[in-house]
Specification:
alpha/beta, OB fold (Dihydrolipoamide Acetyltransferase, E2P), GMP Synthetase, Chain A, domain 3, DNA polymerase, domain 1, 4 domains, 3-stranded mixed β-sheet, 20 helices, TF_NusA_KH_1st, RNA binding
C-alpha cells in the first residue's frame, strides 16, 4: 500500500513496517498516489542502526519470475521451471522456461488461453513485451531460441572463452540485433554468453581473410610456396606450434608429404619458434622484466613481453593483478556490458588459469599460507556450528583481496606522494608486517 512519494522514491507500507521503492527501481515514469496498491519484489533487506531497511523493486528479473509464478499454476507447482530472465524494464524482456512433464508445453502454458496469462504479466509491467523462450541445455540451440524472432543460419561456440559467433542472413541482421542492440543484448544476458552477430557474407569474408593470413604465415616462416601453405591451412593447421609439435602422422595425410618432408617442416617450425622465443625474452628483459617473473612456471617469453608492456615486471606486480587484468572479462556499467582487455588474453588464458597463477605467485611470495588452500574439498563435508566460521573465512579472504589491491595502488604512487600521505605500507615479509 503506497503511503507517500518523496523525491521520486515511493514509501510503501508492507504491513510490518515501511519499505522504499527507489526511483531507479520503478518502471519508466510510473507514479503512484497514496493508498494505491502495487506489486513489488523485496530486493534487499539491510540491518542498520535505525532498524531493518527494506528495498523494493519492479525492475528486477526476479519480479517478472514471481509474476509468472502467480499467473501460471504449472510454475507454482514446479512442473514448469523458469531457468533465466533478462529484462529491459518497461520495454522488452526474455524469459527461458522448461517443462519437467513431457506432456506439457512450457511456452504454451505460460502464454495461456488466447494469451491471457502472459498478458496479465505484460499489463502489470506497463506493456513490457515478453518473449517466452524454450530453454535447452545445448547452448547453441538455446541461443538460437533466445534470438527469436530472428532466424539463425549457423552458430559457432567457444565454450572456454564464453564467446559465440552467430551467422544470420543479410535480411535478418537488423532483426537479430534489435533496436539499439536490444535483442542481442537480452539474448546475451539470458544465455550468459558474449554474442558476435555477423551476416553470411561477412563470415565468408572473415574466413577468407583468416585463410589468406595463415597461408602467408606458413609461406613467410617455413619458406613454402603458396600451394603447399594452402594445403596446410586446408588440413586445419593454424599456427607454427601446431606444425612443430603435432604427431608426424597428422602431417603424412597431406598429399605429397612423406616422412622426410614432415621432419623438415617440423624442424623449420621449431627453429622459427626458438628464434621468436629468444627475441621476445630479450625484449621483455629490455623492458625491465626481472628474473623472479622470468622463472615463474607457466609464462612463455611472449607472455612475459606482453606483461612488461602492461607494466607487470616483477613477481610482486604479477601477484597483485586481478584475474580479469590477465584473462580479460566483461563489466556491466549502467546496464551495458563493457569489455576489459587482459594482458594475457591474446594467449587464451582463462580466468581459472589466471586465478591459479596469481595464487601461486602469492604463495611463493609468502602472502598466502599454502596450507589454507589445502583440504577445501574435505571441509565441504564437515558440519560447522552455525555460520560463524564460514563468515570469518569469507571476511578473511575478502580482507586479503582488499589489502592486495591497496598494495597495488600504493606501489604505483610516487615517493613524494607516499611521503605526503604520512604512513608506510609494510609487506607481510617485512619485520613487524
Amino acid at each position: 500500500l503506497v503511503k507517500r512519494e518523496e523525491y521520486g522514491n515511493v514509501i510503501v507500507d508492507v504491513g510490518a513496517g515501511e519499505a522504499i521503492l527507489r526511483r531507479n527501481e520503478k518502471i519508466g515514469r510510473e507514479s503512484y498516489r497514496p493508498n494505491d496498491r502495487i506489486r513489488v519484489y523485496i530486493k534487499d533487506v539491510r540491518r542498520e542502526q535505525r532498524g531493518p531497511q527494506i528495498f523494493l523493486s519492479r525492475t528486477a528479473p526476479e519480479f517478472m519470475a514471481e509474476l509468472f509464478k502467480m499467473e501460471v499454476p504449472e510454475i507454482y507447482d514446479g512442473i514448469i521451471e523458469i531457468k533465466a530472465v533478462a529484462r529491459d524494464p518497461g520495454s522488452r524482456a526474455k524469459i527461458a522456461v522448461i517443462s519437467h512433464d513431457g506432456s506439457i508445453d512450457p511456452v504454451g502454458a505460460c502464454v495461456g488461453m488466447r494469451g491471457s496469462r502472459v498478458q496479465a504479466v505484460v499489463n502489470e509491467l506497463q506493456g513490457e513485451k515478453i518473449d517466452i523462450i524454450p530453454w535447452n541445455e545445448d547452448q547453441p540451440t538455446f541461443l538460437v531460441n533466445a534470438l527469436q524472432p530472428a532466424e539463425v543460419s549457423k552458430v559457432v561456440l567457444d565454450e572456454e572463452a564464453g564467446k559465440i559467433e552467430v551467422v544470420v542472413p543479410e535480411e535478418q541482421l537488423s532483426l537479430a540485433i534489435g533496436r539499439r542492440g536490444q535483442n542481442v543484448r537480452l539474448a546475451s544476458q539470458l544465455t550468459g554468453l558474449d554474442i558476435d552477430i555477423m551476416t553470411e557474407e561477412q563470415e565468408s569474408q572473415r574466413r577468407q581473410a583468416e585463410f589468406e593470413l595463415r597461408t602467408k604465415l606458413f609461406m613467410d616462416n617455413l619458406d613454402l610456396d603458396e600451394f603447399f601453405a594452402q594445403l596446410l591451412v586446408s588440413e586445419g593447421f593454424s599456427n607454427l606450434e601446431e606444425v612443430a609439435y603435432v604427431e608426424v602422422d597428422e602431417l603424412l595425410v597431406i598429399d605429397g608429404v612423406d616422412e622426410d618432408t614432415a621432419g623438415e617442416l617440423q624442424a623449420r617450425a621449431r627453429d622459427v619458434l626458438e628464434a621468436q622465443n629468444k627475441a621476445a625474452l630479450d625484449n621483455a628483459r629490455a623492458l625491465g622484466v626481472e628474473d623472479s617473473l622470468v622463472e615463474f612456471d607457466g609464462l612463455t617469453p611472449q607472455m612475459l613481453e606482453a606483461l612488461a608492456k602492461d607494466d607487470v615486471k616483477t613477481l610482486e606486480d604479477f601477484a597483485t593483478c586481478a584475474d580479469w587484468e590477465l584473462a580479460g572479462g566483461w563489466t556491466t556499467v549502467n546496464g551495458e556490458r563493457v569489455k576489459d582487455d587482459g594482458a594475457l588474453e591474446p594467449f587464451e588464458v582463462s580466468l581459472e588459469d589466471a586465478q591459479a597463477m596469481i595464487m601461486t605467485a602469492r604463495v611463493m611470495l609468502g602472502w598466502v599460507d599454502p596450507t589454507e588452500l589445502e583440504g577445501d574439498a574435505d571441509e565441504d563435508d564437515v558440519e560447522t556450528d552455525g555460520e560463524t566460521a564460514e563468515e570469518a573465512e569469507a571476511y578473511r579472504k575478502c580482507g586479503t583481496m582488499i589489502i592486495l589491491e591497496i598494495r597495488k595502488l600504493w606501489e604505483r604512487l610516487s615517493p613524494e606522494t607516499r611521503s605526503e600521505l604520512g604512513f608506510v605500507f609494510l609487506r607481510p615479509t617485512d619485520p613487524g608486517g
